[in-house]
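Worked Example 4.2. Consider the chain below.
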Amino acid sequence: MYRKLKITEMGRMTVEQFRESEKLPLTVVLDSVRSLYNVGSVFRSCDAFRVAEVVLCGITATPPNAEIHKTALGAEDSVAWRYFKDTMEAVAALHAEDYTLLAIEQCEGSTMLQDFEPVEGKKYAVVLGNEVKGVQQQVVDACDACIEIPQFGTKHSLNVSVTAGIVIWHFAANLLL
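Applying the procedure from the previous section yields the following structure tokens:
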């Protein structure tokens, strides 16, 4: 028989402990994501896997914001974040900080996620795009590679927050577990 754990039994770290803890060497970049609920959901997934940082770009809203908080449930307070007016500025800054940038997009020549193996000791930034337009082509062009999540149904895309969770899990499974 299985008994659900109470929140008090889970031994979760405090926000301060989270901030001081070692992070997954991954930054998640949101390229003009419209939905504040998607932004909040990405923060929550980033907290769950101790992602180093979220970079918010363009029209992507920033904390503090009640709609972000509704899905982030406070993760916007634990996960480090910064904002760039233009995604290309963020790409340049991350390249200067020695990140390998990966556009999460359906592209000619993209690498399927299951075939991508992150290298221990490297820092990665994954760029996730707008809910309708995806990652801007100029941003794709500036990235080091494109990663694609294979899909087998009738739809050609996943929700951006779902995509973030799948990609973050892939990094965590390969670098933390």
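The chain has one domain: 21-175. The radius of gyration is 16 Å. Compare this with Example 4.1 before moving on.
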